[in-house]
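user: can you give me the structure for this one chain? tokens are fine.
assistant: on it. calling the predictor now.
[tool input]
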Amino acid sequence: MRVRKLTSKEAWRLMGFSDEDYEKAYKVCAETYLYHQAGNSIVVDVIYNVLKSIFA
């Protein structure tokens, strides 16, 4: 079984960023840094729902 590595664009999409945001960053950053930026981000929708369930 072969496992395919995510592209940096797919990583950004999983973290909730738009393709437009990715394209802006792609113009000024190396591919490695795009992965780092996606990995260091927080998925806003997840945090919102967690806090909503805590304080509801």
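assistant: here you go. Residues 44-55 form the longest helix (12 residues). The chain has one domain: 8-55.
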